[in-house]
């Protein structure tokens, strides 16, 4: 028996999704032509599953800054900041992030995943409680597992359930940390943050908001759901990532809490991993500047999101509860979903396929994410393809007879 035998079932499921050129989990981009187009299996393809919300991955300024940083500082830092020291870029980016959010402290991490691992495992200790939305991202659950706090889940986006659970803890002396997301990554819905902030105030808990998918997307200046909901003063910790709106990689946390700096020697996923490379720091800084200086990108993103969301929902597809840059179409069974995904790809459209149990509704999802850089024509092409294939597979009713090929 192999040490990997315990994964036999998983391996079978993975292989059953098809051979390399049609298996959604093995997809390879031969080339990336722009932030919205690439080449997959030799075919030019519209990219509609990249989280590249502002389309900044090919921004000339970001590329220039990145190249200049490689020339000045080299390709990597080759170590952790605690052991090997920080580069000036790390500090500059932390200052820029803190300033953007109007907070006193900022810390950057090598990924968004590690930002959550760090904060969740460290902020809440042995006598404390983590109160997590049940649809939380894996990095939040993993952070909870890495730490020692008691973990309590409340019903997704349900402030009353949150309140009930916190009230039961009122005689327990430990700190309570509520964790929610600005935009949930699977269905694109947002936390009811004003109500959650009220529960936080009433119960004396702390509040952490993961703005991974909402920074650069929501709020008058792009600070995310906390800004859009007008409750920034109630949010103790904002966590996010550079891998979506800012088009690079890395994570961050900003806060006003006294004593924040101790986290640099307390968060193990910060201390024991190599720091962000100079090129990444530099392009992130430039992308942040662009995001701040060009609010028009957010307007285009919102328009594009609405065009895709309303286009698909008016065809009869089952989409998430609100228009957002993440638009997911639910399909009844895995087999149809894999076929759907492959037919879209053959038609020149790449979206993500999310399969249960990784989906909140336990139904497979064709998950699209839109960018400010998509043209109305690309979006209309995508909607037309969804319509055609959706009818052929019986996911939506046929408007006119179509032959199944
Ligand atoms: N938080 C949320 C809500 C996410 O969706 C993700 C990634 N999709 C992360 C954190 C992790 O970010 P990263 O991929 O940049 O590590």
Largest sheet: 7 strands, mixed
**Which of globular, elongated, flat, extended, rod-shaped describes the shape?**
globular
Radius of gyration: 22 Å
What is the fold-level CATH name, i.e. the topology of the largest domain?
Answer: Aspartate Aminotransferase, domain 2
Bound molecules: 4'-deoxy-4'-aminopyridoxal-5'-phosphate
Summed up, the helix count is 14
Structural class by helix and strand composition: alpha/beta
CATH architecture of the largest domain: 3-Layer(aba) Sandwich
Average pLDDT metric:
96
Strand content: 15-25%
State the low-pLDDT regions, or none.
none
- Highest CATH level, the class of the largest domain: Alpha Beta
Task: Output the CATH homologous superfamily of the largest domain.
Answer: Type I PLP-dependent aspartate aminotransferase-like (Major domain)
How many strands in all? 14
Sheet with most strands: strand arrangement: 4-10-9-8-7-5-6
Our count of domains comes out at 2
Give the proportion of residues in helices: 25-40%
What is the rounded distance between the termini?
Answer: 43 Å
Keywords for this structure?
14 helices; pyridoxal phosphate; 38% helix; binds 4'-deoxy-4'-aminopyridoxal-5'-phosphate; pyridoxal phosphate binding; PyrdxlP-dep_Trfase_major; transferase; Aspartate Aminotransferase, domain 2; four-stranded mixed sheet; Aspartate Aminotransferase, domain 1; alpha/beta; 405 residues; 2 domains; globular; seven-stranded mixed sheet; single chain
């Amino acid at each position: 028996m192999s040490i990997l035998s315990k994964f036999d079932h998983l391996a079978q499921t993975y292989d059953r999704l098809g051979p390399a050129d049609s298996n959604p989990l093995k997809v390879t981009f031969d080339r990336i032509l722009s932030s919205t187009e690439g080449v997959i299996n030799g075919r030019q393809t519209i990219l509609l599953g990249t989280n590249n919300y502002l389309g900044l991955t090919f921004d000339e300024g970001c590329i220039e800054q990145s190249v200049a940083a490689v020339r000045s500082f080299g390709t990597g830092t080759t170590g952790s900041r605690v052991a090997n020291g920080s580069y000036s870029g790390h500090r500059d980016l932390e200052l820029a992030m803190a300033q953007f959010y109007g907070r006193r402290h900022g810390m950057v991490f090598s990924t968004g995943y590690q930002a959550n691992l760090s904060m969740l495992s460290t902020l809440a200790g042995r006598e404390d409680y983590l109160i997590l939305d049940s649809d939380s991202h894996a990095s939040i659950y993993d952070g909870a597992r890495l730490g020692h706090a008691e973990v309590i889940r409340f019903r997704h986006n349900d402030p009353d359930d949150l309140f009930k659970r916190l009230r039961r803890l009122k005689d327990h002396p430990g700190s309570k940390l509520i964790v929610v997301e600005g935009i949930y990554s699977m269905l694109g819905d947002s936390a009811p943050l004003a109500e959650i902030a009220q529960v936080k105030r009433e119960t004396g808990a702390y509040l952490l908001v993961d703005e991974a998918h909402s920074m650069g997307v929501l709020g008058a200046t792009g600070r995310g759901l906390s800004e859009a909901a007008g409750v920034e003063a109630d949010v103790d910790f904002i966590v996010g990532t550079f891998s979506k709106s800012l088009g690079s990689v890395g994570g961050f946390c900003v806060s006003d809490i006294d004593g924040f700096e101790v986290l640099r020697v307390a968060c193990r996923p910060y201390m024991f991993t190599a720091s962000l490379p100079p090129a990444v720091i530099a392009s992130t800084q430039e992308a942040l500047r662009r995001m701040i200086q060009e609010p028009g990108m957010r307007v285009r993103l919102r328009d594009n999101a609405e065009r895709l969301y309303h286009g698909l929902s008016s065809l009869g597809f089952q989409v998430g509860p609100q228009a957002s840059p993440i638009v997911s179409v639910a399909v009844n069974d895995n087999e149809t979903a894999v076929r759907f995904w492959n037919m879209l790809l053959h038609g020149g459209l790449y979206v993500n396929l999310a399969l249960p149990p990784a989906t909140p509704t336990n139904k497979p999802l064709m998950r699209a994410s839109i960018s400010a850089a998509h043209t109305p024509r690309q979006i209309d092409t995508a909607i037309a393809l969804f319509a055609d294939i959706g009818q052929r597979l019986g996911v939506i009713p046929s408007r006119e007879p179509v032959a199944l090929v």
